[in-house]
């Protein structure tokens, strides 16, 4: 892991700065509640591959983690997935209360843009970073995927195409975002089309792997509720079965590896991350 301890300290400092409140305490509870930090590591790995000090990515990666965490807080709410467990601990609305959890999500989302603007780069690049942050996480990005996910719960005969669209937006957009930000910070914008392909393939693969783990692993191992089946969620396993799902994960991994060959940087570190994601058991 690249600068793991230093980045954790940066997250802690940013989520606790300024005024204290129960909402800010809940923000910190969820943001600092473990997590693999895959999105920051993707950014740091690419920055390193481009020959840039990964620390330049701390503000934008903190912002991305804040947005990712807000989405998890809201996903766990009773009106959404109604999950009581997140990363092995009570979900935010269980550790505090539902109203505080909603405010904690709101606080993380808005704080993210403040932190992102502290990036050590030119004003032009800051504008591009902020636009990417809003675009990939907003109503035409992650939130669109959540919208499609809720709609799919009411479908009597959901399709594979519907599932891939959900995964493309709900999961892949936030995996693509840190890689795009790394290209912007490194002034390597010619790589963005390839990074978008890599993010697309990795996001679908990641979510399909998640669906498989929900079936094959316990909640204790995963550190979260395995509630998709009980909630009637559309998953790759519910559509194709376990073995065909595993084969599709391998298929998308092949697409991903081919796309990586087009990048104008050293890909050793980022390949390590994708190896981990492919072979993870939690």
TrEMBL record:
SUPFAM superfamilies: Terpenoid synthases. It holds the Pfam family polyprenyl_synt. GO terms for biological process: terpenoid biosynthetic process. PROSITE patterns: POLYPRENYL_SYNTHASE_1 (PS00723). It is an enzyme of class 2 (transferase). One of its GO terms (molecular function) is (2E,6E)-farnesyl diphosphate synthase activity. One of its GO terms (cellular component) is cytoplasm. Its cofactor is Mg(2+). It catalyses: isopentenyl diphosphate + (2E)-geranyl diphosphate = (2E,6E)-farnesyl diphosphate + diphosphate. It comes from the Bacteria. Keywords: Isoprene biosynthesis, Magnesium, Metal-binding, Transferase. InterPro entries: Isoprenoid_synthase_dom_sf (IPR008949), Polyprenyl_synt (IPR000092), Polyprenyl_synt_CS (IPR033749), Prenyl_diphosphate_synthase (IPR053378). The keyword Transferase applies. Belongs to the FPP/GGPP synthase family. PANTHER family: FARNESYL DIPHOSPHATE SYNTHASE. This is Farnesyl diphosphate synthase.
């Amino acid at each position: 892991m690249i600068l793991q301890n230093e980045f954790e300290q940066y997250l802690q400092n940013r989520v606790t700065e300024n005024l204290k409140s129960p909402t800010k305490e809940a923000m910190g509870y969820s943001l600092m509640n473990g997590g693999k930090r895959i999105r920051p590591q993707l950014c740091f790995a690419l920055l390193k591959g481009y020959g840039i000090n990964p620390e330049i990515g701390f503000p934008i990666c903190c912002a991305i983690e804040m947005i990712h965490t807000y989405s998890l807080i809201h996903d766990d709410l009773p009106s959404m997935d109604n999950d009581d467990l997140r990363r092995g601990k009570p979900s935010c609305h269980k550790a505090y209360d539902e109203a505080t959890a909603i405010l904690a999500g709101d606080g993380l989302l808005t704080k993210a843009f403040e932190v992102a603007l502290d990036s050590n780069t030119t004003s032009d690049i800051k504008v591009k970073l902020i636009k990417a942050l809003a675009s990939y996480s907003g109503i035409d990005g992650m939130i669109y995927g959540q919208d499609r996910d809720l709609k799919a719960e009411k479908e009597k005969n959901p399709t594979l195409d519907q599932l891939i669209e959900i995964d493309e937006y709900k999961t892949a957009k936030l995996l693509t975002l840190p890689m795009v930000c790394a290209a912007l910070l490194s002034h390597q914008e010619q790589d963005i089309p390839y990074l978008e392909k890599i993010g697309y393939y990795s996001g679908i693969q990641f979510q399909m792997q998640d669906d498989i783990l929900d079936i094959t692993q316990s909640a204790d191992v995963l550190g979260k509720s395995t509630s998709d089946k009980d909630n009637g969620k559309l998953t790759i396993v519910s559509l194709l079965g376990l073995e065909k799902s595993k084969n599709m994960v391998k298929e998308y991994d092949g697409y991903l590896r081919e796309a990586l060959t087009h990048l104008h940087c050293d890909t050793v570190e980022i390949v390590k991350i994708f190896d981990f994601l492919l072979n993870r058991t939690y």
